Amino acid sequence: MQHPGADTWYMPDLLQVDALQSALAAEFNLVVTPEYAATVVYTDSFDWRLYQQGYLLHCHGQSWTLYHGDSCEVTVQQGGPELKGSRFAQDFPPGRLREILEPILGVRCLLPLATVGLKGCQIRLLNRDEKTVARIVVETQQPAGKKSIFRLIRLFGLRGYDQELAHVRRILEENGVRQNASPLIGFEEGCRVAGRQPLDYSSKFSLVLDPACTARQAMVRIYQSLLESIKRNIPGVLEDWDSEFLHDLRVAIRRTRSGLSLVTKVLPDAMVERFKRDFGLLGSLTGPTRDLDVYLLNRDDYLNRLPPALQPGLNGFFAELARRRQVEQKKLVRVLRAKKSKTILAAWQRALHNQDLQPAPLAGIPVGELAGRIIVKRFKRVLREGKALNTATPDAEVHRLRIQCKKLRYAIEFFSSLYPKEEVQRVVRQLKKLQDILGSFNDLSVQLEMLRLNLTKQRGESRRNLELAAALGGLMQSLFQEQQALRDHFAEAFDQFSDPETMALFHQLFRKKQEPS
Q1: Cα–Cα distance between 272 and 355 in angstroms, integer?
Q2: Element (H, E) at 39
Q3: What 3-state class would DSSP assign to 180?
Q4: H-helix or E-strand containing 443?
Q5: 15, 177 in Cβ contact below 8 A?
Q6: Which residue(s) pair with 473 in the sheet?
Q7: Which pLDDT tens digit goes with each residue over 301-335?
Q8: Are 416 and 383 spatial neighbours (Cβ–Cβ below 8 Å)?
Q9: pLDDT for the residue numbered 184
Q10: Of the candidates 223, 205, 261, which has an alpha carbon nearest to the alpha carbon of residue 351?
Q11: Fewer beta carbons within 10 angstroms: which end of the chain, N or C?
Q12: What phi and psi, each to the nearest 5 degrees, are found at residue 57?
């Protein structure tokens, strides 16, 4: 988000609002609104989804205000729920604000980011025809937890009145208003007080490696970045704010395990084997809750696959999933708070810090040589296993290819900063198409097995059981048909992934990195 510093300034300490109004009144007619004062709470998702789209949202009690654009002009003001811990877009009443929030936030919740005290007034500047030519907001912003009070002057021009706007700027400058400021200084400082700053977290792996570093130095930085992601997501999992905290936690654990499997002889073997086991354990313990999250998030999709007459049969099914999810979430909280989990993460952090003292055969090779070697090896394996697939391939073998694609993707992401960005993005786009199909295929396979097990557990011929059995059967038929269609889509996507152009790009990008400089 870019801020128009030229139209926002710090108000000089010696300049009083009355004096400023007098200077403006000498050239314009003024309409001054009554002073406002409020303590507002700025909110966004943990991964800054609103901010990334140019939005800022704050609430004062049940009053919500959404800003958009560099000028922080108000987009929507309306009532809504009180911000108690966390809120989802679906918690808002139907209306424009909810319409904007739902597609941006998705499954993520809003969390409080910064509390700021605001006080000020608005001045409309009118010409001789009594038409508004510009607006000025004089405002103080004080973040909670800071003694500093920021006195700001913000100038908003109107289309067609450029000369008047320039005149207002001259008046402000003549009164000492010269030092540019961010119109969001209170928000930004409030975030810092709370230990956050805009865009300080993303679920996407992004790390710039020094091409001159060794393989070990690179892998340590990669593992440290992943460990930071694990640690940052744990509080959200414990509080159960939204399902993405657990998803991101599992992805960071999985990336760590994949790194330990992909990159051998860079860290000591004993260290690698120990932490492969440890992170494998953490991954398995977090699995049941995530599986249930996926089923519950698919509720609307499941219902839409069935004719209306069969949909009520799933009500009890989802109620049981929600109950099981509560049980598994409590188990997960106990696991993450247990001494063993804390010991694993603390030991991993110490091992990464002390790794220079431990020898390994490939620790000192250039990172570029390591990267090219790993990526090309994984690429060849994906090609080999992909070519062996056909419409009759068992689900388990399709799943193995999915894992190999995921490892290739992780390897490219780990070392992407060493290669030209546009070319890497082209490769990743082709790989992602393949991954999306394989991921959907595997999800359907898992869901079908889960539904099959639930169906086999049904006992008796009560109306409720018969309705559930009919709904589960109809749902399984729909999911199976989609899974079969994905087999055909896979063949097309794999042909694109393995075509001569993509293969040539892979070799051009990654083989040359293996050559010593």
Answers
A1: 11
A2: strand 36-44
A3: strand
A4: helix 421-456
A5: yes
A6: none
A7: 999 999 999 999 999 999 999 999 999 999 999 99
A8: no
A9: 86
A10: 223
A11: C
A12: -130, 130
Q: How far apart are CA 509 and CA 497, in angstroms?
A: 15
Predicted pLDDT at 290: 95
Strand partners for 42: 58, 114
Place of tokens 């007034």: 121
- Across the chain, mean pLDDT equals 92
Element (H, E) at 56: strand 55-60
User: Distances from the Cα of 292 to the Cαs of 320, 465, 480, in angstroms?
Assistant: 10, 21, 20
> 173 by DSSP, 3-state: which?
helix
Which is more confident, 192 or 358? 192
SS (H, E, C) 19-76: HHHHHHHCCCEEEECCCEEEEEEEEECCCCHHHHCCEEEEEECCEEEEEECCCCEEEE
Determine the Cα–Cα distance for residues 472 and 463; give it in Å rounded to an integer: 14
- How deeply is 52 buried, as exposed, middle or buried, from its count of CB atoms within 10 A (0-12, 13-18, 19+)? middle
State both tokens at 512: 């040359």
Structure tokens belonging to residue 465: 């059981």
Which residue type sits at 396?
A
Band the pLDDT of 392: cuts 50, 70, 90.
Answer: confident
Amino acid letter at 443? D
Q: Report the C-alpha dihedral over residues 101, 89, 94, 82, rounded to 10 degrees.
A: -120
Diameter of the chain measured on Cα atoms: 88
Give the CA distances from residue 291 to residues 287, 398, 419, in Å, rounded to whole numbers and listed in that order: 6, 19, 36
Task: Flag whether pLDDT at 284 surpasses 80.
Answer: yes
CA Rg value for the chain: 29
Name residue 116's beta-bridge partners.
40, 143
Q: How many CB atoms lie within 10 A of CB 299?
A: 14
pLDDT tens figures, 88-101 = 999 999 999 999 99
Question: What is the pLDDT, as a whole number, of residue 376?
Answer: 92
